[in-house]
Amino acid sequence: MEIIDCHFHLIPREIGEKASFYNKTWMDMDAHLNMMDETHIAKAVISYPTTDAHVNAKEKEITVARLYNKKTAEVIRHHRDRFVGAGVIPLAEEGEMLDELSRLLDVGFMAVSMATSYDDVYLDSEEFHPLFERISDAGLPIFVHPTTIKPIGIEQVRHPLLTPVIEFIFDTTMCIGRLITSGTLRSFPKLKFVFANFGGATPFIKDRYDTTYNMLLSLGYVQDLGKLPTEFLKQLYVDTSGTVSRSIIQCGIDTFGAENILWGSDYPANKNVRQSIDAIEDLDLPDEKKIMILSRNAERIFGDVRI
Fold first, then answer.
1. Closest Cα to residue 114, out of 192, 40, 56, 170?
2. Quick check: pTM over 0.85?
């Protein structure tokens, strides 16, 4: 069974050495390829976990993004049969974002990598609309990773365990909520967002979306979205991010549907890659749906890319 890893990080040394957190494992090409061979992963989508490299280097984020994209393009060129690239486009001037997208398409990137938020600016901001129009036209998937720099709640609590475990997850949850309530998903119905970690806490609060929305709509407190909030969730893709819990995986399937779930290892943050593959293969699901999660869904979303 072919496996495609849709949550995979390989950071160029030039970026990793400027960042605060990422050790040499994140930059070790041989270790990444060995892991893929040992676990029979055919291809991996390289996406950006967000770093503070630009802060430490006192540079614009778009400058560091261009360096990341250049170095990642070299990796893809030498290992085209093993890697798919998701190029980074941070919040910047409209012209800078569109120019960088054009460069990504020119060198063969098949996806875009974005953060859930940029210094409190979420993906529902109208600043991203021209970029989203171009991305939608090209059929590119957008792999959305929780911001690691200033996630929601960090002003109150900054903790080496609680920040990545809780605040990253809720920044993802808030990003999805804002995309729904702002009308962004309604305005860009063909955009293919792929959120990490099953979309944060979204599967656990989905029932509250509809019941609370109906109550507030009847009181005139919220705008009419045109359909229930959970209907917009069907536009989203999520990845498994190394999850091994069957109950969590099943909750994700119940929320988004097996056809919208992509398997991802979250390597090298997660080292139990084989265990997270087994978690899918051991599910009480038809083999066809397991194959969808492990590879077919990824093949489908990349099959629509027009470059």
1. 192
2. yes
